[in-house]
Structure formats: C-alpha cells, structure tokens
Amino acid sequence: MSFNTFGKFFRFTTWGESHGPAIGCVVDGCPPNIPISEKEIQIDMDKRRPGQSKFTTQRKESDKVTILSGVFEGKTTGTPISMIIYNEDKRSRDYETIKDKFRPGHADYTYFKKYGIRDYRGGGRQSARETASRVAAGAIAKKVLKEIIGKKLNIVGAVVQLGVMGCDRDKWSDLEIRKNPFFCPDKSSVKTWEKYLLNVRKSGSSCGAVIELRAKGVPIGLGAPIYSKLDADIASALMSINAVKGVNIGEGMNAAYLSGEENSDEIRGKSGKIKFKTNKAGGILGGISSGQDIIASFAVKPTSSILNSRETINKKGENTKISVKGRHDPCVGIRAVPIGEAMLACVLLDHYLMNKAQCSN
Amino acid sequence: MSFNTFGKFFRFTTWGESHGPAIGCVVDGCPPNIPISEKEIQIDMDKRRPGQSKFTTQRKESDKVTILSGVFEGKTTGTPISMIIYNEDKRSRDYETIKDKFRPGHADYTYFKKYGIRDYRGGGRQSARETASRVAAGAIAKKVLKEIIGKKLNIVGAVVQLGVMGCDRDKWSDLEIRKNPFFCPDKSSVKTWEKYLLNVRKSGSSCGAVIELRAKGVPIGLGAPIYSKLDADIASALMSINAVKGVNIGEGMNAAYLSGEENSDEIRGKSGKIKFKTNKAGGILGGISSGQDIIASFAVKPTSSILNSRETINKKGENTKISVKGRHDPCVGIRAVPIGEAMLACVLLDHYLMNKAQCSN
Amino acid sequence: MSFNTFGKFFRFTTWGESHGPAIGCVVDGCPPNIPISEKEIQIDMDKRRPGQSKFTTQRKESDKVTILSGVFEGKTTGTPISMIIYNEDKRSRDYETIKDKFRPGHADYTYFKKYGIRDYRGGGRQSARETASRVAAGAIAKKVLKEIIGKKLNIVGAVVQLGVMGCDRDKWSDLEIRKNPFFCPDKSSVKTWEKYLLNVRKSGSSCGAVIELRAKGVPIGLGAPIYSKLDADIASALMSINAVKGVNIGEGMNAAYLSGEENSDEIRGKSGKIKFKTNKAGGILGGISSGQDIIASFAVKPTSSILNSRETINKKGENTKISVKGRHDPCVGIRAVPIGEAMLACVLLDHYLMNKAQCSN
Amino acid sequence: MSFNTFGKFFRFTTWGESHGPAIGCVVDGCPPNIPISEKEIQIDMDKRRPGQSKFTTQRKESDKVTILSGVFEGKTTGTPISMIIYNEDKRSRDYETIKDKFRPGHADYTYFKKYGIRDYRGGGRQSARETASRVAAGAIAKKVLKEIIGKKLNIVGAVVQLGVMGCDRDKWSDLEIRKNPFFCPDKSSVKTWEKYLLNVRKSGSSCGAVIELRAKGVPIGLGAPIYSKLDADIASALMSINAVKGVNIGEGMNAAYLSGEENSDEIRGKSGKIKFKTNKAGGILGGISSGQDIIASFAVKPTSSILNSRETINKKGENTKISVKGRHDPCVGIRAVPIGEAMLACVLLDHYLMNKAQCSN
Description:
Four copies of one chain form a homotetramer.
Chain A: E1 5-6, E2 11-16, E3 22-28, H1 38-48, E4 65-67, E5 71-72, E6 75-76, E7 81-86, H2 108-115, H3 131-149, E8 154-162, H4 174-177, H5 187-202, E9 209-216, H6 230-239, E10 244-249, H7 260-263, E11 267-270, E12 273-276, E13 284-285, E14 288-289, E15 294-300, E16 310-313, E17 319-322, H8 336-359
Antiparallel strand pairs in A: 1-2, 2-3, 3-7, 4-7, 5-6, 8-9, 9-15, 10-15, 11-12, 13-14, 16-17
C-alpha cells in the first residue's frame, strides 16, 4: 500500500491540508553521512513558492522548511528525516460560498463521494500545496544523488509549451530557464508567452502547459523490470502531480507516428565508448536507463478555478454556478516545473539504491 | 519492492522467459468464492495469441493456460492462483548471429549492462511473451469485477491510430473491434488500414499505434490519493507494457492546448442523478474515479525488429549491423489491445478492494 | 520496504530522536468519519508517560500530542493524520562522558557500525522514546476498532512476571491493572513486587519482565496466510519494541512440552454457538483469528543502563568502563504494557481492513 | 501487502495446495550471476522430504524441484526464478469422513469461516506441504549468501528439545545433527529421544519441539530499525511456519529472569578486534546484527492429528469426534529444522541486500 507514501527504497510520506496548521513529509531510506541543511532545501522550496510573479497564485507563503529529525551535526544519520512547513496564509476566507459546492475540474465531488467527508478549505488535501512537501523530499534526493554519483548528474525541467504557444526546444538553455517567470528554455519565446498569458488572465480564463524534464549523467542500469521499470515509475510519479493528464518518455505519444527506422536509436562504438545516434527512447530501453539523457514530459491541464462562471451542483445535488473571486492563477503548469524535477530526482535515487542492492558486487 | 509483481491488493507476479520451458504467473489477493475456469481465461488468451493474422507475429503458440492452484471445485478459494503456459515454439533457431549483438530499440544492451548476463534467446525476459501472463491475470480480474460489480462494468480497448493513420473515434463500435484484425473501432477505416499496413510490411519497416481503453460502469470513489491515485496507477500499468512510450488520461497531452472553460467538465443534477456535460478528465478527478467512463490511451512505438538493416554494436563494443530474417511483425501495437484491457482490469479491481477496505462500512 | 513504517493497510510511520526537537508519526490508511480528539489520544499517552512512579525513568516529559492533519471538525477524513510530540527534557547533559563509548546491551555499537554515524544523545533514534509515537498511533487504532466493531472489543495488557517474581494469572483483574504502578493483574502480588523492585533498584541493578496481552471480542477471520498470518504480524510487532527478546502466542514456548491431547483445543457446539474447551492456541489457528481471546506475551530484557559499572569499549576500540549516574530505571518492561497494547491494536485494525477488502461481500 | 510473499528485497511467493497438481514458488530479487542448479537445491529439499524415518509423516513424495525460469546457462539472470514441485502422493483417500469436520488444532475452522470455502484435501493450503517451497527458496538464499559473503557464513538448525526431553546444548555438534533422525545436536541424547518418541507414537499421541538456529559469520549491520529490525523479521519468518507458537532471540523469554549484569553482553577490545564476553542478545542489538552468532529458537506445538479421538464439530455446528487412521506423525517439529534454516537464510539475504542499498558506498 502506498496511499501517501512515494518510493520503494528512498521513500517519502507527505501529510497536511491546504489550510491546516502545517504540511510536511517524512523521508525514509535516505543514506547516512550525507551533508544536508535546511538552507539547501530552501533553495528548491523557493522555486516552487507561490506569489513570485503575477503569473502564478498570489497566496502568501514563505514556505520555510524545518528539519525535525534524521540530521545530526549537519549530516544524515540513516534515520527518518521529518520536515515541517507551517501554513501561513490560511486567513479565514468566506468559505461559506463554496463549502457546499463542487468545483468543476477539481476533486471536490470525488473526495466527498469517496470519503463522505472533506476539508473544503482551499481544497484540503487535494490542494497543490501538498507538492511543497515533494519539493523538500526532492531536494534531499538531489543532494544525495550529487554526493553519490557526482556533479555530472543534473536534472532540469522547463515549460516547453504554454497553452497553444510552443517554443523552440532546440534552443534549450538551462541558464535561460532560471531567468524568466515561465521556466521557458527558449529566450526567443519569452516575450510572446508573456503577452499570451496576460491575455489569458485578463479574459478570466486559464491555459495548460507541457513540462519537459531532462536528466543528464544518469548511470546505466537503473530500472527494475517488469513492474518497477524506470519509465513506469516516472509515469506514476508525474501522473500523481495535481492536474497532470499525460506523460511521455522520449518521443512519447509521437512514437506512434514514426517508422521503425526513425524510432529505434542506432548504436555506434568508438574507441571503447558507446554512442547512440539519436535519443527517441528518452534514455530508457526495456525499462532500464541506457546512459543517455532521460527525457520525460508531462501535460498539466488548465487551471480549473477561473473567473468565468461555471455550472455545477451542490452537496444536495441542486444545480448552481461557481466562479473564483479576485485574482486567479492563469496557468498552474508553470509551478509544476520544480515539482517534476523533484519527483524525477526521487525516482532516480530510489532506483539507484535498488540497483545497488541487486546488481552491484 | 515490486520487481515482477503488479498491484497492491490484487497482485500478480509473472515469471518466465521467451524461450524457457514455460511462462506463468501467481495471482494473489483474489477474493474467494468466485467461479472461474481455464476456459474463460483462454478466451482472453486467444485475443492476444500470436499468429492469428498476417499482420502480427507468426510465432506459433497455442498459449494454453493451466491453473495449478487456488481454484477448488470451480471456485476461487482466496489462496494464490498459479497459472502456467508452456512455451511451444522455441525451436532452436540460429541465435548465434544475434546472441552477441545488441538489437537497437530493444533492451538487449541495457539488460546486459545492468545484470552482466542475459538470456538472449528471443529477448529472454524482455520479450513481449511475458504479457501473456498479464492477460491471464487480467481475465481473472475481469471475472471478479463482473461478479462483484455486475454486468454493467465493461472494459474495451481498440487501436485508434495505426502509424500515421487515424480513425473516427466517434464511430467507435465495440462490435466492430472484434471483427477486424486491427481491433479498429471504426468500420470505415479498416480497409485503408489494411492497405497501409501491408505496405509497411512489404517495405520491411514497421509502424507504431495508439490504443484507447474505455471502462464503463466503474463505481465512484476508486483511487487512493496521493501516491496511489487511480490515474497514476493506470499510467504505471500501461507504461510497464513493452514498447509503450506515452500514456494519456482523458484529453491527456492535449489538455495543455485547452482553455479552463473547455477542459473542466461542468456538472448538472436532475432528479437526484448527476451528469457531467463532458468527459475531458477521462473519468478521474484528483486521482479518484468520478463515475464517468474511464478513458485512457497509450502509444506503442514501432516494432524495433525490422527487415531493413540497422547499425549497432556487439558485446565487444565493435560496430556491426543487424536485421530480421524471414517474416516480421509490422506493428506490435495491435496485440497490445488485450494487454491494455488486462492491465486496466487489474488496476480497477485492485482499487476496488482498497476502497472497500478503507471507505466502506 | 518498511524501515520506519508499520502496517500494511493501517500504517504509521514514526520519526524523531530522543533529544531532537520533537518526535512524531504519520498515520495513513485510517478510515474516514471516525470521531477522534487529542484528548482521547492523550489518555493512552499518559499511561506510557515517564516519571509517574519511582519505579520507572525520571525523565520529565508531558508527552502532549498535537494533531497536525487528517482530522477535520473532529472527524478523520481518510487523509494522513500527522501527530507531533515535542521533546521537553533534553537538557544539555554531559554527554561527553558517553558519546564515544558503546553502552553494553544498547544499540550504540551496531548503529555506529551500520550507519557510520549516530546521534549519541540519549540513544538518539534507538531510544525507547520512539514508542510514544506508537502509543499515539495505537490510540487511533483502538478508537477505530471500537467505532467499527463495537464496545465488546477490548485490549488489555499486564505485567505477569517481574524479574524472577511471577503472579497468579488466574486472578487477572482488568481493574487491578490500572491501580498499581506495575500493571500487575493480580492484587495479591503487588506488595511483594514492590519490595522486590525496590531492592533491585537499591542494588543498582535491573530486572526483566513478561507482559501478557489479551484481546477480547476479536472477530473470526483476521489474518492472511501464509506470510501475513495474524500471529506472524503480532510477533513482528512485539519484537520490534525496544528490549523485547521473545514472543509467545497462547501457550508459546510452553507448547513444546504439551501432548497433542493437551494442546489442541477441542470444539463443542451448542444451540448454534461454538465453544472451544480450552485456548492453548491463543485465539489463532493457521494464522487466522478463531473468535477466541487473542493471547500474546513477550519478554523484555532487564534495563541495560545500570548503576553498576560494566566493561565496554570506545569508538577507538579501547577498553573502558561505563555506568549510569544518578537515578536509573530498574525495569523498562513496566512501561512496555501500553506499547504492547498499542501495537496489538494496530495489527488487529490492519488485519480487519485487509479482511474486509478480501473476504467481505 | 504480502499474503503469500515473503521478504522485501529478496522475495519469494509460494503457491499450491497439499493435494493439487503441484506446489511451487517464484523467487524475485535474486542477484544475477550466481551459479545455481536444481541439484544443489535438491540437497536441502531432501532434508525436509517426508518419509525418511519412522518418526515423521509417511507421505511418499520425491519432492523433486524443477527450475522453470530465471537461470540461464547455470547462472541466475536477475529475473524471477520459478520453481515447481509436483505432488505425487495425492491418492484419492476417503476424504468423505473428514471433509465436513473441523480438525481441532488445525486451521480447518478458521479457513472455512474466513473464506467461506476451503480445499479440505489434506488441509489444502494450510498443509505444511507449503514449506517445501520455502526450503527451495532458502536453498537459493543460502547459495547467494555463500557466493557473496563467503564460506564462513553458516546457518545450522537443530532440535534442542523433543517434547519434555531436553539435551545438552553445550555439546552441540553440527556433524551429529546430520547423523540422527531428530536433528539432535547432542549425541548423548539421541538414544533417550528415540525411546521417548517411540512411546509417544505407540500411545497414539504426539509431542512438540524446540528448534534452535545458529548463524555464524553474519556481517555487522544487518537489520533496518525500527520496523524492519532483524529480530522482528526473524520473528515473523519463524512464526509464519506451521504450528510455531513462540520465538526467542538469544536468551528470549528467559531474559525476563536475568539481572542487568547477567544479560548485557560486555565488550572487550584487543589489538583492533572486538569481542563480546557473552551472547545473551543472540547477536542482535537494537534490531541490528552485531557480528556475533545469530541465535534464534522457536517452539513447534505437538502434532494436532493424532490417533486418539478428539471432540469437535462439523460444518453444520453439530458435535462429533475425529481421529487419524493408520500411521501418524508423532512430532511435526522435527521437519521444521530445514524450514527454519531456510527462513533464516532468506531473512539474512534480504537484509544483506537492504543494507547494501542503504549503507554501503
């Protein structure tokens, strides 16, 4: 069972609701003797933190992470690392208007039907606020990977499509990603995207996004066929993120359109080194990493809470309408970038440890 | 850990290599007192069985399933159900020509690098032959679901895209799917597809496919947030199938292009009944089934083993070429239809049991 | 994997070290709509709380539990319940004298050899302080069981042997257990035990104990053969408690001395009711509860930290001596009673939910 | 969940009923490149095989094990190892006399109440025949351990008490164990035991036994606190064996009688080597192996099926009597020796792999 726990060997369990006193997670299975500090984790937290630009949610949260256990004198001890993040912006809004309505596109209806009870404040457990805990766990995973594998391991994500607007993926720049508020990897697209998203916001609507993740320096051999294939675990990890509806590995859905010649990455050897001529597979063959870059992408649906009025029902089954008051978040997909990176880091570390157990001597 | 085991509550463990004496699986967690027979399971096995048309692999296997345990006097007993399928077409081909080469697009290279050893005969464990075991497990899952939930529950899959050829999904007919060798749901596309695929085969190449799965009659409330979300588990299940590179739930990757208005399914109530106006979400909200049809699709890459010569290396790292002799399978995606159905059935039963434990009284 | 997580369906993950800022646990898989309050949980916490009599450790902790998530308007929501207990008595003792020494009978040496690092303050993670989290989780399990099964379900533990001093188990009184500082079930033994333990303490030594747990009103059918047998899971649960070295179910080790006639509990039926003539099996047959009282007992070894000097080594491998200064805890076994009850409650609820999933209709 | 699966990293899933066509198991997580043959496994199978002396069951089974997958050219490949053992002695006895009766001391009643159905032939799934699969899995575990750790690792079990008859554990001889039909380690007790057991058998009764397991050469650091402690996992493993009612680690239940001085094993260092003065802890401190010999013992209850008539009920709840016809097995505990060894080997390998993943660099 793994209701609120992710991972097999490197595992984290998240807890907390949007408007409860706090959220947090417990990381278990972290190797000992890894130097780690709250400060390092906070860097990743800040990438996901709300309210950083006018293009994302305006909720005010400092998202300060505190380590409660598992780290002693600056190093992990091999025991569980408990982290807590207090909820600050939980002002008593007028939830009366929405507490009995099911917001379309949200999980209000399904949570209520499943559990017979739900914390309606800000979406409760279904809120994307839970993902802050993932980012904290992912920051630890990244640090462990760097300590064990070395600096060459690098995981970077970017928004490669914003609503109907694409970008030139060949112009991908890690540096550029950190510079613009969209995590856009192609400098030449930033201006257009800005204009587009402002329009979306003004119109009271929202748009989706596609996020691409690239992991360089991943060792060969990660992934445990058949039912812990690396790609299957990445798919599960990314699909578990709020609002994600599709996951691709390498060419992904597009692979259906290719011919056998186009799709299978030919291999060449030269003075003891192996080189694939292409990377349609996204760095994974038969569920096992091939040493090529891991490429995965996922689609985030448009924000469901918009200014424009939507039809729905209330708890009694009566027809009613609903709309968001004040400012809204025109594209929840943007903030999914650090979350995707965190999840990929956790999957890679999990498989690294698994592989060490089974296949190393 | 779940190397070769799928599922949490309703679980199956598969074993066996393409050219070993047999393959099989052990189904654990199956509820007791469910009538089940080898004959019923065989119906599903026959849908996946190779050599049924000129469009799929010509390997000759009767794929006859034998139950070794867990069923007594025609009913399940709640103890593990072991099933075995003997490999028949394992004639001693000349594997000498390929045993030391890594077929591009296959997992030969990654298996060898991971394990330091591999059964090269027909791909060994990485062979799609393993999926026969999944179909057997899925047949049991389907039967249990029908016994518990009733006849209204129905899971059907179809090929909705064959290489570059689409079809009209609005013309979907469950009946038509069973009539043509492509599991194509749209009668008007069958002829064109046949011509297209014959050309692909003749040219010595191959093509990919997109399979869509539809599950009707699924109860509300299946799916355990956060890390056992129904869609996350479906994504993992489908991505674990050989050659799958992308998974969509509902609108999937396409959701990125939609506006908030287009994408969020509005809800209407009428005389105590609830109706969603659309089903962009594919029947899953917040990882929990909403009572709408579950819609999932996945892309299968083109067959990697083709007649046309491909560049690769051998175990020594030397450059060489490889190609398939004799007849080849122009589209492995076709036979993925019953496998996808089986996996979806297993996920749904798994979550049905989980939900019963946690949320029923 | 389950490093710091206990249970399969009803699961709790504990975290925290003896002298860190706090300890706590996350309970996952708890059914929704169960009324629960911090006050109820505190009742059990207080049973385990240190410093309540001169016979147990003098550490000052209020052990106040705070719920951080998973409970809304007084009821469980089906989402994870996070609980935190702040460490209060973590005054900066002079750990210098023991930080580099391995206390015999403790896990100082093995932790250090395994992890290469350890939090030496008060034993760190190996401290019995971790069990406070178990008691909190167990309090929830008990409440859920009572809500679902009803008042007839009752779990009571007692110390049935204190060092070399036994008691008359036939005089077991639930009422008496709550009245004396030893959780002794037999009133006539209390005075003698008091005298005995005062002597043990005065002599600077310590003694072990045997705790017996009795669960009444347990439904028939709990336990999942073969590897989740109810008795196997109880054995694992109890053996995981600090300092426990042996576990018995029913007659336990004593069963070896009995004849087949003496040991197998004969069954009689009378007007539709079934009655076992004896309960040598401790209420479990083939790993499944029989409806009889569940009887389990476990032995706790004598406190390893005593006033009398003991030989040991330091981190450098040099020979040295060690002894406790000030007051010591002459019998850690006494406080194991509420912990044992908590673990048994968690196992029973876990199996109740499992059985509901698999075997109910 | 782990209904019929044992282990976390090195895992085996068993299946099969006493009188079905076959029994078997699937071993998953076995490291690759380990030489293994059916012949080696058979050696352990033969130790457990029935009908080898007049003191055990007379069922005729050759217990020949066949490997169906996971081994290629004599070596493990890292893929699941499926093994099958056909049932030979399943002659159609007259089960009519017992099919509707619940044998006291057996799981007939609880299986029937839990599942509502049971395979009554020879006990079905509850039969100790299932343990043959464990021995097969254990044989693989032992081989892997020897290959990885080396020859110094040695796991030996013996019967140290037969009913009311003890033996001198200080005279333990590994050689002697293999020479007598009781796995008795003390030559001087064999004669007396023989006389005793013949008497038990003649009287139509049965007796229990205590088995002690000793593992030498176990590396320091195995065991994952808190809920995968090595002793907790051993306890679960041994308690899962049919008819086991008690498990001790080191001094076990006896630890309750000892003083702190007697029980805590003092440590001495000498020229870089560490030595414990005693081994009361059974080689495990805080759930982690200390490098000392692992000592575990467990009690097997007397055979429940005896010649002497016992009172019971039938499926209708009516009072009746039951007794075994023909020859019976006076002490099922004897054949538990190789099963205990197998389970201990599996636990040690499981923890070895876990530890390698988490704590090695």
